[in-house]
Amino acid sequence: MTTRDPERRLAPVIRLAPAKVNLTLAVLGTRDDGYHSLHSVMVPIDLADRVSVSVAPPRSRDTLHVTGFDPGPADDNLVLRAIAAAREAARPAWGRRTPPPPLSARLDKRIPVAAGLAGGSSDAAAAADAALEAWDVGLDPDARHALFARLGSDVPFFLVGGPALVEGRGERVTPLGWVRDGDPAHDRPGLLLVTPAVAISTPAAFRAWDDGARVAGGAARLASAHLADELRTGLRVQDLITRASVLAAANDLAPAAAVVEPALVPFKRALLRLLGRPVGVSGSGPSHWALYPSHGEAASAAEALAAAVATGELPSPGGRPPLVAATRILATTDTQRTP
Ligand code: C5P
What we know:
- 35% of the residues lie in helices and 23% in strands.
- The protein has helices at 6-10, 78-94, 119-134, 141-151, 202-210, 219-233, 237-242, 244-248, 254-260, 264-275, 295-311, and strands at 13-30, 36-55, 63-68, 103-109, 164-168, 172-175, 190-195, 280-281, 288-292, 323-328.
- Helix 2 packs antiparallel against helix 4 and helix 5 (202-210) crosses helix 9 (254-260).
- Residues 35-36, 38, 152-154, 169-170, 202-203, 206 line the site of cytidine-5'-monophosphate.
């Protein structure tokens, strides 16, 4: 059991919850539990939600106030489920008679919802982490992993804080390296993110994959294994950029996403024409990405795309302009969890 400092608990605990992008996503097959086994290289980017929790008066209940993008009813939000699951995990440290107190949570949503960026999963990871700190409870790594895995397939990835190989249903997470040389603080690839205003449900995309919306040949699996091997020993930013066309093709859920939302087909075609470089899909879509050697180059491309949205050269599926954002891929050393 740890000693709890009442003064500390009065201050809100704040966490950034970064989005993830799948640089590769191979679907290896269907599991007995109905989930799919995956092989994916995921990276966190610096587009992030912000989660904060503060201890609420005793005998109240956990509450959530959301600003920014609308993630749907607060009662269904993963932040509240994460706090409840973290409370169960924290109970032994507090003793059975005094459960960890209620929390008031705030969520500022800057990551689009149902966009293939795991925003909700990242919020859950950040909320569980913040709740444990607010209650002054440290879990051992296995208990922490079990808590995160209970919250959803994409949640354990956020334990790493940098690029990782994700396998199984999502619960097997292996940290990967990043740039091999250069100043790590200044050597971050830029990633242009383009998210059309259509929500794609992950189960619907997996169902479309089950129903045959897939490419034969296992190219995504090979590309994914190769990238993971290279990142294990470290890859230079320029080497990553030269692999972009292979990576952009290495998403087994992209055909399924296009079946669920056919407007993605002309959208991607327009993106390819306007950007003149490989364009990949993150997760089950609809977010698209393109890699750049630096954040500055991604920002110039974002400006050009914003102009193309204004002239209608880039379509706006869903009836609203897509979100266009220049981001950076984060390394483990970047992801201090407190902003
Ligand atoms: O684990 P999570 O609740 O985030 O998964 C959402 C849905 O995505 C699951 O209900 C399942 O339909 C699908 N899924 C899957 N295989 C995975 C991860 C998710 O089939 N590895």
